[in-house]
């Protein structure tokens, strides 16, 4: 008696969509393929486009061609060095066992000459192998990350690092409208000869995390460059490496040379793939931090983009070519005379907690080039811009479900019937991405979907052409984008992560078994830890791909007049 347990609405939905809840109950075989994520090689720094190239209409190809300029116009990292006035003291707190053995906390004093041999020894003694997140597991794999770590909590710094100056630079370039940013100390990392960390994105700690910060403690090492990539650009940051004693790099002070060392730092948006190249000699000792922005959303939220533009204008140094191209197109009466909606896939991904997706965070939390573009479109051109999540379906079948038995049941009960051939056609069609309705309604959708309540909205699928929205929505999106920009280069990293339900502990005893392995399918995730490893495993916060839906006004309207400019 399986069929009556399936509410008819869900049953008809199941014909078209994944049904993990049923799979978990053993009613259907799970169709999620768990192929191992493809790991990038150390030197493989450019994200490889795996999407089918879209066939954009000729007029719109110019828009895509200008995309690189958006990335180039705004930085994705901030790096520099600073001469400290005082030596840095690091107190290594002895563990309980060691304390009982009479060990004392060890105090390191790191002055101009950097980490001494004895201090390095003490650091190595206190350290343990550094794990990282692979899918949902914390693993130690020296072929991927070879490093030692000392976790925050096992040491105390007496010096305020990052310095106020570092934080100010980071804030003004990376979070210009956040009233306050914070650096949350994560750990000390020690990379000896051969030490490295292959390409990964940093697992977000919550939706206020925008970046990661690395500060190197001065020591002599070679190699160990930090590579950070973003939309085809790669920054190579030596962070004080290169063999010269760190103190030698300080500008020679005349009489009163500062007692402190020179420290190097690099901050980057933490969705950017980065890696630490192998250290060839010496020891590279870093402090890592999560960068959190507080209040960014409130400050520039709502519809007011004016404050946003004033914060990004100094970064831009002129208009974006993408925007002037759009302006030219809008000035052509034959280009979408009725008006349309343009979709733009943002260059960065945004940390969101799946169950707290929130579009009110935008535009305040926008990063780099995305922020610049938003400001230009909304304030510069006066266009209406909506921010929506993009979801990804990896499997090709998206966990789509078809059962002969159930089709028979559907036929007998007047439900829509889909043939197996139709199912196979859908399988091919559903590989790719779909545009969410809004963060809030998608949350509702995903939750109801897993609950079997089945009352969420339907998303719109984006075809491989990147230009089409394929499925009619049960609750139609307000806009339907006919022009897509940026789809191919940005959405190239399929997720390999599944997410466990958070409220397992709330469910009834009886439901426990079936819900235990009831994971969010890759196909429905608001994206995506990606096939790249993270620095931590995480269920809670993921990176979401995000799109702008930009309303392009009809010819002859005042909005079009304003947008096309003089
Ligand atoms: O130590 C570094 O330079 C960065 C290491 C890193 O990427 C991480 O800990 O996530
Ligand atoms: Fe990292």
From TrEMBL:
Region annotation (Disordered) ranges: 28-59, 238-257
Entries under PROSITE patterns matching the protein: FE2OG_OXY (PS51471)
Species of the source: Edaphochlamys debaryana
Composition bias, Low complexity: 245-257
Keywords on record: Dioxygenase, Iron, Metal-binding, Oxidoreductase
A Pfam cross-reference name: 2OG-FeII_Oxy_3
Cofactor entry: L-ascorbate
Name of the protein this chain belongs to: Fe2OG dioxygenase domain-containing protein
Record has Phosphoprotein as a keyword: no
GO MF entry, a single one: dioxygenase activity
Domain Fe2OG dioxygenase: 181-293
InterPro entries per record: Oxoglu/Fe-dep_dioxygenase_dom (IPR005123), Pro_4_hyd_alph (IPR006620), Pro_4_hyd_alph_FE2OG_OXY (IPR044862)
Any coiled-coil regions, as ranges: none
